[in-house]
Amino acid sequence: MPLWFIRGLRRGVVTTRYPARRDDSAACLPTPPAFRPRQLTIQAADRMVAVCPSAALSRRDDILVFDVGACTACGKCAAVAPDAVAQSEDFELATTARSALIKKIPIRGGER
Amino acid sequence: MTSVDARAAEISEQLVRQLAGLGGLQVRDGGATRGAVTVRMLPETLEEATQALAGKASIRLADMFGDNGGDAPTLRLVWALDQGYLLTETEIEDGQYPPLSDVAPAAFVEECEIYEQFGIRPATGKPLNRLMLPPHAGPDFPRLGHRPDQPPEETHAPHTVGGQAFEFPFGPVRQVGVESLYYGLVTSGEEVVDVYLFSWHKHRGVERRLRGLTPGEAIFFAERAEGLSAVAVGWAFAAAVEAALDVTPPPAADRTRAVALELERLYNHAAAMAALCQATGLTVGQSAAEIALERLLRVNTAAFGHRYLFGVIEPGGTARAPDAAVLRRDLPAAYGELRRAADALLSTNSFVDRLEACGILTAEQARRLGLVGPVARATGLAVDARLNGGPYAEHQLAIVTADGGDVLARLQVMLGEAAESARLIGEFLEAGTAAERTSLPSGGGRGLGWAESSRGEVLAWVALDEDGRITRARLRPGSVRNWRGFDDACRSQNVFTDIPIIEASFWLTAAGLAR
Questions:
Q1: Which of these, B254, B243, B207, lies nearest to B36 by C-alpha position?
Q2: Which residue among A90, B52, B233, B465 is the one 20 to 30 A from A108 at the CA level?
Q3: How far apart are CA B113 and CA B132, in angstroms?
Q4: pTM score, two decimals?
């Protein structure tokens, strides 16, 4: 056991400095989408709703409702509407209220 | 994987000739499952055929499932041969079939599952346990087929056994383990008399959810049937679809799948080692193993863009290719971290002493229960779906086995496999990997696919209609087979505190069973 104690001390601290410093490995990870309302059309919204496998997206008239809590960052929405979607690069999604994870995105691109 | 070499076909032909002697047998061509020799049997000959197959040392009952596709429910049994698979299918017209688990004990869990989902049962009327669906599952509860006439038995041991033992629940929220689990534990005070897993709390109905989807849509759910085996289950599912549609993925895509699969094996084995340290109270060892685990997960991220390798596999090929330069640069260091931690652990007597003679399973138990993966290999059985070919056929694959059958043997098998995985990844990268895909043709068919996850053989069976939509998909992760060996291992003269150690050495998931 003393050997393990010494081994642990010699290994030192290996945890990252997060949140004081951003973790570099996060740059490669998929993140939930960020929508561009001006590029977002009704048709694009419907395409995204249709392909979303976890039902994180729905449309109510000219509002795209995005449940961040249900999103798995699979990227299927970006694949069908690349102009209207970008990676948010946001990992800090925790909230104290479930309702705060429901985002309402206005569809401003008009019908095309 | 779906390719099977000529020798496997020869073995299958011999078996079919033998089974033909029983009568009522028809080898199917049209409408048969591609990827396996398909034999249609009458219910009258099913028991005798099961007896004949289960009695052979080189044949293992790998899966059994129901299907509601025809006029009557169909019972399908998948038999693993030395190489390749044999599939029997039998239409069950009067709601009963021969008691197969009496001759092949490996079939009992599936008998319970089939009863809950399709309402058909073994003819002896023996009790079948609640496995998948919750007690409140009423007539409208979604299931794959018909509701059983009578609800299944609740899994409970008597609260007193011989006046000495008693039963108490353990879980579902507890400290050890990354998933919530709920055991029923029967004890006489310290010794484990019996232990059984309740899994219906977590049933998600994934197989039912797949119905009506296209393979491209369904792969998302298949990967999530057992998230820690996302690549293996995804590959088996994709291979079943490819077999059904008679397409072959590009060789470079197959090698990409193999790279992802070996990375998955590496991080799972590192996680199992960390869990073993936690279970034995070796905190610094746990930290050392978790450092290795985190480095391996970061290698996954850098190589494939996902810590748990989701989204790599797609029917027909792969959606992503590994960053070979990153893998060549980072993997040796991450694996080295794991190896150093393992070497230190294996030279720590107090750790090794806790693993020796703990949770023993014999080769005969493993064979009888149809166990797979490191759990089976630690008893000396060289069971490995990678032997069936695919990209592994072009590379020398060393199957790591041990003889002890205890926790230490399982750890040694995992460590040997981790070394083999690191070597194989280098070879696959050398041979060339790519994100390529063969287009899926329109039309239907049935196919069987398989892959070897870190927990053992994964099987998938898929039936597609003429529109290319799934009418039935069966996913059988390795955990489904190995949970049935867990209680045997726990009962083998072990005490309470051995259970977390045995559980870590099995490194199974509740999700795989409750898919």
A1: B243
A2: A90
A3: 6
A4: 0.92
